[in-house]
Design a protein that fits this description.
Helices cover 67% and strands 3% of the residues. By secondary structure, it is mainly alpha-helical. Helix 2 runs antiparallel to helix 6. The radius of gyration is 16 Å and the shape is globular. The model has no long low-confidence stretch (mean pLDDT 80). The structure holds 2-acetamido-2-deoxy-beta-D-glucopyranose (2 copies). The site of one 2-acetamido-2-deoxy-beta-D-glucopyranose has 2 residues, from loops. The site of one 2-acetamido-2-deoxy-beta-D-glucopyranose has 6 residues, from helix 2.
Length: 140
Amino acid sequence: MDRRYRISFLTLFLAGCLQGNPIPRLLAGIDYLEENITCDKQFSLSRLQDSCIVAALACSIKELDTVKVECLDKAVHLESMQHHISMTATALQKTIDKENSTTDTSECICEDKRLEKSFKDFIQNIRHLTQAHAAKRLSS
Ligand SMILES: *[C@@H]1O[C@H](CO)[C@@H](O)[C@H](O)[C@H]1NC(C)=O
Ligand SMILES: *[C@@H]1O[C@H](CO)[C@@H](O)[C@H](O)[C@H]1NC(C)=O
């Protein structure tokens, strides 16, 4: 990358952090969940479709509530885990708050039983959705 661009990218990134950009917290939350939570429950993933990213993220926020209810019964650091799940859900919500999600929600299904996956896949899916969403916003 050209040095000038790299600097302006860094500036943007830092400015974003100072203004409460949810992305760094979101990524920290995702890392925490991926490393520290194990769960046997199966998750319904939303397919990664360009027209459905916001809706898929909204579905993931709902699924995170399920994680709180169904995955923490053997948790050692219960409060810390609840905190990180809530933080991740809040950060996700902030990334889509400004969007017009109603238009795309109607045509997207939250639960697709054919796509039941493990907890790790669910977390990976959130990561991919977040990246796809950020890329889409940068390009529009
Ligand atoms: C996992 O939990 C431990 C103990 O709370 C913490 O020190 C560590 O940073 C966590 N992992 C991630 C990736 O956040
Ligand atoms: C939100 O959706 C409505 C209805 O489809 C549309 O008229 C409006 O322009 C959209 N707003 C934005 C910011 O995209």
